[in-house]
Each structure stands twice: as structure tokens, then as C-alpha cells.
Amino acid sequence: MIPENLLETYGAECLQYGENELIFSEKRRADFYFQIKAGEVKMFNLSENGKEFLQGMFFTGESFGEPPLFGDFKYPATAITLGSSKIYRLPKAKLMELLKSNFNLHLKVTETLAKRLKYKSMIMKEISVHPPEHRILTLVDFLKKQYGDETMYKVELTRQQIADLTGLRVETVIRAFKSLESEGEIEIRNHKIFR
């Protein structure tokens, strides 16, 4: 999102993380802007009984955890790496300087936050109103629009990750995929989902 050379100019450090390494915890004060140079990150909450609710997944080139920087509140979720990752970390004060000096980047960050808000609204509606097949197709179509192209899109998420993102159980996701395949909405090739 923000060019790497500009991040470095403003003092960002590039940190190396291993798999399943903690980046920040829920309810911790937000002091840094994070942007992935290479790797994957997930943000999630845990219920009292230990069930994980996946808030989002972020990939190379994407930022994450920005709302608390602008709203001056603590992180609403925990972030960990999904594999070996390199992540830029820029102090909040330096981020604000960068954005004040680069209005077009400020607009790009605002646009990204608006799209994430739209996604959250869409997912909340899906979880509260629609059957599993509809929830899954909405998620897959969102991912295809965000990361794919006009051709057949290969879903890179695991069935567990899809379950976590849609508020479903893995068994329900598997049944829904079989139903969607029989209806011609998706293709399953070598255990991978295509749409």
C-alpha cells in the first residue's frame, strides 16, 4: 500500500517473524502501523471457550491493524503470522507525518479502510441472515474480486479458514461445497475450490 522506500524514509523497520508468531494482542495499545513485505497474517478473537473467530487475513503488500491508530483505541483483535513473514513496523507518530506530507497516500489508506468496513458489513449480514452456501459464495466472490481476475479463481484458503471467516463449522463448509459443486457454482479439482 505505502511504497517501501517511503516507509523506510520515515523510519520503518522491517521485522522477521516465524510461523504463528504474535504481532500484537487484543486490548493492547496501538502504537505502530504494520505492512506486510512478505508473508501472511491473520487477525482473530477468541471466545471464552477458546473458539476462534477470524476477523481477517492479510497478504504481501497489505497493511493491517490501522483503525486503532486513527480512532485512538486499543486493538480489537490479536494478529499472528501464518508462516515466515517480513513486516514493516512504523511508529504511529511517523505514520501521521507521512500521511500529512503525502495526501494521495492518505486517500489510499482511507479508501482501504472504507473497503474493509464494507467487507465487515457484508460478512455480518451474511452471518446473520443467509444460509451457508450463500455465505461461502459471497466470501469467494469477494476474494475473487479482491485478489483474482475475470478467469477461474482458485481459493487459497483452507476449509477451516473459510469456516472461521463465515461463522460456520468445517463440516458445514464441506457439505456446502458439495452442494455448490452439484449446482455448478464452483468446481473442485484435487481438493481445491475454483470459481
UniProtKB/TrEMBL annotation:
CDD domains documented for this protein: CAP_ED (cd00038), HTH_CRP (cd00092)
Q: Where is the Cyclic nucleotide-binding domain?
A: 17-116
Q: Which InterPro entries match?
A: cNMP-bd_dom, cNMP-bd_dom_sf, Env_Response_Regulators, HTH_CRP, RmlC-like_jellyroll, WH_DNA-bd_sf
HTH crp-type domain span = 130-195
- UniProt keywords, alphabetically: DNA-binding, Transcription, Transcription regulation
Q: Does the keyword DNA-binding apply?
A: yes
Q: Which GO terms describe its molecular function?
A: DNA binding; DNA-binding transcription factor activity
Q: Which GO terms describe its cellular component?
A: cytosol
Q: Which domain of life is it from?
A: Bacteria
Q: Does the keyword DNA-binding apply?
A: yes
The protein's name is CRP-like cAMP-binding protein
Taxonomic source organism? Ulvibacter antarcticus
What lineage does UniProt assign to this protein's organism? Bacteria, Pseudomonadati, Bacteroidota, Flavobacteriia, Flavobacteriales
